Amino acid sequence: MILEINNIEVIYNKAVQVLRGLSLSVPKGQIVALLGSNGAGKTTTLKAVSNLLALEDGEMTRGSVAFAGRDTGDMRPHQLVRAGLFHVMEGRHVFEDLTVEENLTAATYALTGRRAASADFDLVYEYFPRLHERRRGLAGYLSGGEQQMLAIGRALIAQPVLMLLDEPSLGLSPILVENIFGIIARINAEQGVSMLLVEQNASVALAVAHTGYIMETGKVVIDGPAEKLAADPDVREFYLGMGGGEIRSFRDIKHYKRRKRWLS
Amino acid sequence: MIGFDWLMLAEVSFAGLGSGGLYALAGLAFVLIYKATRVVNLAIGEMLMMGAYFFFAATSSMGWPIWIGIIAAVIGSGILGAVIERLLIRPMLGEAPISVFMITVGLSSILVGTVELIWGADQLRLPDFMPSDTVLIGEAMVSPKIFYGFLAAVALIACVLLVFRFWRGGVALRATASDQAAAYSMGIDVPRVFSLTWVVAAMVAAIGGIIVGSISSLSPTMGVFGLSVLVVVIVGGLDSVPGALVGGLLVGLVESWTGTYFGGEFKLLATFSLLVLILMVRPYGLFGTHEIERL
Q: Least CB-packed of A126, A187, A245, B141 within 10 Å?
C-alpha cells in the first residue's frame, strides 16, 4: 500500500465536521477512484492527505494517514510533495501570471533534496504537445483544458510516487475529458504512478480506475473493484445515471435517496 | 506663456524624477512584501532609516571604508528583516490583516525609539561618497547627489526585476504571490519564501535609506519618507511592481513641481490630492490587481 487512510475525522473552523471516520487505501501502481456527490468530503479527504487543511482552518482530529508506510501527521505540505506525494488541486490552480514554462519551473521545487532527479520538461511536452506550443504564453490565457494539462504537467515534473487528482474533468468538454483521462491512464501505466482520483464523473473515473470507493456525508459507503462497482445496480442508478430501464418521476428518486441513506 | 522659464521647469523635473527614483525603490520594497505576504508594511520608512543608520554606524563610528559600510548596512538590514519576519509577522499568519497592519505600526515606533536610544534624536551627516561635480543634462543643471542617487536606484530596481524574472527563486516568489496553496503543492517552502521576501525587501530598503540619507541628512524622523512611499504604492496599485515605479516617478515629479512653484508647504497637499484623484478614477491604483481574463 502506498497510501493508507485510517479512520480520519476532519473538522473545519472547529465547528463543521466533514469527515466521520473515513478509511481507504491505495495499492502501489493502481488508480483508485473516490466518488461521491457534492459535499460528501472528497476534496477534504485529499487535503487531509496532502496536509493542506490548515490553510482553510481545517483540522484532522482523529485517525491517521500513512504515505509509503510513514505517518504524515508531522510533515509539512512541501515536505510531502518532495517525498513524492503530489496533489493536483481542484480548479487547476495554475499560476496565472506566470508563463507555462515558469509554471513547470515552479514544480521543480518538488525535486529539492532528491538524488539523481532532474526536471524532465520534454516528458511533459511529449504527453501534452499543446503545452509546448504555448510554453512562452501566460498560463492565465490558456483554455480550461490546457490549464488542466498544465496542472497535470506540473505533477509530471515532480516525478511523484502518488498523485492526488481532484476532479480533472471539471468544466471540460466531453472530448477533452476523454483526452485527459486517456493521458491519466497512460501516465499510470507508463510511469507507474499510483493515483487517488476524485471525480463527479463516475463513469469515466470507473473506466480508468482499478478500485473504487463511494463516499457519502463523510464516510465510505461502498467499495470494491471498479468493474464490480460499475455493474452494481445501486451505483448504476445513483452515480452513473442509469436506472433499471423504466423512467421514474423525480419524486421516486428522492424517495430512493432517503431510503439509501437509512441503509448506509 | 511668454517668459516662462523652460530651463527651470526642466531642472525641477529632473530633480523630481531623481527623488521619484528613490520613491520607486522604497515602493518596490513595499510591494515585494505586500505581493508575497499580503502584509501592509507601514514600517517601510523606518526600515529605510535603519539601513541608513547601519551605514552610519559602519562608516562613521567603526571607520570602515564606504563600500564595506554599504555591504555591512545591507547585510545588517537583511538580518533585521529576517528577525522582524520571524518574531513579529510569522506568528500573525492567518490573523486578520488589520492586526498585522497594527503590528507594523508598532514596529515603526520601536525602530524609531531604538534609533533614538542608540544614536540620539539629533540630525547626523552621512559621509559623502558620491561625486560632487554638477551634472549637466542638456543645459539643465542637476544636483550630483540626486543624479547619482537616481542612477543607483534605477540600477538596483533593474537588478531586482531581472533576478525575479530569471532566477528560480523569483519564480517561487511569484508563484507564492499568485496562489499560496498551489505553491505549497509544488513543493515550495512557502514560509521560507516569506522570510526571503522580508530579507530582500529590507536590503532594498537599506540601499534606499543610504541614498536618501546622503542626499539630505540622517535623523529619526526620516521614516516620514515612508508616508510618501505609502502614497506611491497606493497610487501605483499595492501589488504592482510597475505601479510602484510609475507611481514613484509621478509623486516625485508632483512634489518637486509644487515645491518649486507653490512652496514647500503645498507638497503634501499636492501628493495627497493626487492620491484622492487617482483613487476616485481607479480605486485599485493605476496598475493594481489586474485580473487576467481568459480568452
A: A245
CATH of residue B121's domain is 1.10.3470
Q: Are B59 and B218 in contact (CB under 8 A)?
A: no
Number of H helices, E strands in chain B: 11, 2
Domain count, chain B: 1
Strands A85-88 and A162-166: parallel
Contact assessment for residue B88 and residue B107, using Cβ atoms and an 8 Å cutoff: yes
Q: How far is A31 from chain B (nearest CA, A)?
A: 20
Nearest by CB: A81 against B168, B171, B186: B186
Residue A253 has phi, psi (to 5 degrees) of: -65, -45
Query: Would you say residue B38 lies in a domain?
Result: yes
List, for residues B77-130, the tens digit of each pLDDT value: 999 999 999 999 988 877 788 889 899 999 999 999 999 999 988 888 888 777
C-alpha grid cell for residue A155? 505533477
* ipTM higher than the 0.95 cut: no
Residues of B in contact with A138 (CB under 8 A): 292
> CA of B289, closest CA in chain A: separation in Å?
11
Q: Do B184 and A140 touch (CB under 8 A)?
A: no
Question: What pTM was estimated for this model as a whole?
Answer: 0.82
A141 and B295: CB-CB below 8 Å?
yes
